[in-house]
Input
Amino acid sequence: MFFDGSLLQEVFKQLRLKGEISEDEENTCLSRMEFADLKDNQLIINVPSGYYKDRFEDLFQDKISAEISEMEGTNISVHFEVKRPQEKKTVQAQQPIIHEKKESKTHKRPEGLVETYTFDNFVVGDKNLYSREAALAIAKEPGKKFNPCLMVGNVGLGKTHLLQAIGNYIFDHDQSLKIVYVTAEKFVREFIEMLGKSEGSKSMSKSSKNMAFKDKYRKADVLLIDDIHTFQGKSETQEELFHIFNDLYEAKKQIVLTCDRPISELKNLNERLKSRFSRGITVDLRPPDFETKIAIIHKKLESFNAIFPQDVIELIAETVKTNVRDLEAAITNIYSYADLTRKQVTIELAKERLKASNNVQVDEIFSIDRVQRVIADYFNVSINDLKGKKKNKSIVYPRQIAMYICREMTDFPTTEIGLEFGGRDHTTVMHACQKINDLRIADPNLDAMLQNLIRSVREHKEMI
Output
């Protein structure tokens, strides 16, 4: 018998091999549990908070007890004890951005830039470190590195924050550069208004408004456009943007764009524009991991000058699985309610406010059938194909995607998921989930597609 941390590893290895837990559950548990002691037929396991103590007692106490009893040949009981660890850092320490700003009383911050969006207050984690570093490199040397730059990610993951941080950093360092920040929606509106026409009409105005529009964008040193997916289907606006893009690119002016999905998934967008948008680098922003969410919560609480119990912080991080925006909304909801009602922030209060929040989806039940219908529609296959025996790649890949999303979005065990996919064994489901997870890590486009599909399942509507 192992009387150290390897004991837990062996226990969970055996549980996984028997199909009683998944590999994801094994990794989650081992990262939150710590072997403490084994004596007098009692196994003591340390966990970081009361939340995990309650959770693991419900889910794993009996399984661990049965497995270790079988290994030892005698009855052994399992007990969880709370031992709060020191807070973990999400990534290696970042060097502070030290600089001397060039102040000017005659220059106003460019229209649309919000001064509070900076690199200093962007919380960095493993999944967004590359995006942040790429954005900072662009801000330090606009037009010289990574041009153009396309930032891809779902809503609420920090695209706009980084886009604006680039503009603010450049403005604070070199006010001789003309910075233009605009949302794609506003760009379209200005195009229509300044030409005195409606999108789709045949005539093209040659008025002074037209020249003002062209001067604004074609004389920019730095062009920042947010949400370029808005350009889909707007052919004449796309044509104008194409020429602006060419002029700026050839003049080595910096262009940075954001989009909520990979360029390949945009419909009714000029292929020439797609090619140019992808000419430089593409960085993807992904949902924050657990440790990064903890750091985000602490930073948000600092802005309120407030402190939450650690188990409440961990509950919020575990519960909110969508994006940073929803995470901050959940914190604000709990803090404001406790502050206004003069109540103490407890696990019970936090659970109540999370369930009442419109921005946070908590314990929502998604059926396997619902997932299957969304995946079948997206890949243009039938639900019978997903459940059937066909093994050609055009069917196996969507089937594995569907199994992965079922595992991510539902509480059904792998055995039940397998049954809903034509009576397949739970090991088939586990293999599918692991395969898609490995591909997701290696391919940012797949990760973005998965997030898009998950969003579609949540909204219960067909893909746009």
Residues 85-105, 201-205 have pLDDT under 50 and may be disordered. DSSP finds 19 helices and eight strands in the chain.
